[in-house]
């Protein structure tokens, strides 16, 4: 009798370990297609671009290994620093999108008749493609017949002036980016605990104090996503520049993503273009790793 009782825990532990191994195998097979697709579409292109940046290649003839010569040329090119400066301008002004999105989300979160129609109107710019947004704002800025001329009273060559073209394109890019952040915050506002808000109001918190100490802490995940996606969007900006200015005048509005495209498509410098892509990827990677570490610290 005592022997059979002693065998029970060991048999139970064997069954538990077998079921655990079965669950691990099932999880592995479920994750395998996604991991394979991620490796094929993300990991392989990253290492392929790094390898290509060490070659001189026009896309048709034989590759020539040149080591770090593409990077040496890149860091000596004046256009690279212009593009880097413009990316920084994009980054600074694009960070206006999360607070503006929060402002609109707080306004649209009210239970008022007809608010759904207003929400759809605010969200409409995000649905439009970058090409459509670029064309709309190109017509808006046109110094001959554009709406800006009617508002100001005289034509302003926003896209034709090297000092204003980048700011004009960034303003156009904020039009769809702000509704995107607004949707993230509207989603976060639906998850706010109303009991906490009511308790804060009973304690006398209202207005700015209620927003800062009660609502914003509960919107931290939405804020994290809005800031990260906005920064990544600023660093990989391309479509509006291609449609509105083509990097001009005289490369004054180019950014790293457009500079990379310009060298690859127009001048057939695939290796040099890959070097620009690697530098842009490194900048994004530093930022993403920094925010991921910060998020993991907060979760712990």
TrEMBL record:
Entry membrane topology: Multi-pass membrane protein
Biological process, per Gene Ontology: transmembrane transport
Keyword Transmembrane recorded: yes
SUPFAM superfamilies, alphabetized: MetI-like (SSF161098)
Subcellular location as annotated: Cell membrane
Positions of transmembrane segments: 26-47, 88-108, 120-141, 210-233, 272-290
Family stated for the protein in its record: Belongs to the binding-protein-dependent transport system permease family.
Name listed for the protein in its UniProt record: ABC transporter permease
């Amino acid at each position: 009798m005592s022997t059979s009782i002693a065998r029970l825990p060991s048999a139970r532990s064997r069954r538990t370990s077998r079921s655990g191994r079965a669950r691990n195998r099932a999880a592995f097979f479920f994750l395998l297609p996604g991991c394979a697709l991620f490796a094929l579409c993300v990991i392989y292109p990253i290492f392929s671009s790094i390898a290509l940046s060490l070659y001189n290649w026009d896309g048709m003839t034989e590759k020539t290994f040149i080591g770090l010569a593409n990077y040496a040329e890149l860091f000596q090119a004046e256009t690279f620093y212009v593009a880097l400066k413009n990316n920084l301008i994009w980054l600074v002004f694009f960070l206006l999108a999360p607070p503006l999105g929060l402002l609109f989300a707080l306004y649209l979160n009210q239970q008022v008749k007809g608010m759904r129609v207003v929400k759809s109107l605010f969200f409409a710019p995000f649905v439009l493609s970058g090409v459509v947004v670029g064309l709309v704002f190109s017509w808006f800025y046109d110094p001959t017949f554009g709406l800006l001329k009617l508002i100001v009273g005289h034509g302003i060559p926003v896209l034709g002036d090297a000092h204003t073209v980048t700011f004009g394109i960034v303003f156009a890019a904020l039009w769809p980016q702000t509704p995107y952040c607004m949707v993230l915050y509207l989603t976060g506002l639906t998850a706010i605990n109303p009991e906490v808000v009511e308790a804060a109001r009973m304690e006398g918190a209202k207005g700015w104090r209620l927003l800062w100490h009660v609502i914003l802490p509960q919107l931290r995940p939405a804020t994290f996503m809005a800031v990260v996606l906005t920064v990544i969007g600023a660093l990989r900006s391309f479509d509006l520049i291609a449609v509105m200015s083509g990097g001009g005048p005289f490369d004054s509005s180019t950014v790293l993503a457009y500079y990379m495209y310009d060298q690859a498509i127009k001048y057939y410098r695939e290796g040099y273009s890959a070097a620009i892509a690697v530098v842009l990827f490194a900048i994004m990677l530093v930022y993403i790793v920094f925010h991921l570490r910060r998020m993991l610290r907060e979760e712990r």
